[in-house]
């Protein structure tokens, strides 16, 4: 298994840690609520990192950032912060994991300034990538360099409907020490959309069954709720049980909370953490948020 030494180990003992985060670290609707406004772009990640201790690196899917840009991300976050860095689409979608050495090398070099903050390299595969393609994935994983964790997200329905297909993928991932990232959209698709944001997500998000099997000691979950907070919370209750179980097994999971509009995502991520910590008081607390508005004397 490819591990980064020292993560989640402090003063000689293993920490009980659940990291939580969102799909991005800046959103217009967060200004003045979760993040101060106005706030320069190069300070927004620092403010976000006081709310959540993980973030999805979706922007790297569209273009590999420069090392200088990545270095600014590292400077705004502590060493325990977790980035889930998504491989560029030229590797996963355009070239389908073939003839990608140059692009892969450039990406891994670019994220090097993150150090241990690069919690995992996220390999999100297109919906057309099915069980027949697992040998291709296995070859790709076998050639990846040590020094990073790797996590794979698949969307082909057969991986969720066929136990044989799931076992085939699990075997390839276990051999490489890689995790399977579930994107749980079952709560979202439980009832018809009621807002513009939900209707937009309805046509774009994958509709696959939930899956809660961890392959490594660092499971990663992406969860999509609704714009209605109580529906979102009700939908994640099974995940509270799963995450509590993982923590008791000695695993250190990361949970990403999404809603169609993501307007309240940082607060919801912290609420999920609170729900788990209510069951496990020994769980490490999240950082205290930086106030979004100046403190007053009255």
Automatic annotation (TrEMBL):
Pfam families, sorted: DUF72 (PF01904)
Recorded superkingdom: Bacteria
InterPro entries: DUF72 (IPR002763), UPF0759_sf (IPR036520)
PANTHER family: UNCHARACTERIZED PROTEIN YECE, UPF0759 PROTEIN YECE
Name the record gives this protein: Uncharacterized conserved protein YecE, DUF72 family
Species assigned in the record: Parafrankia irregularis
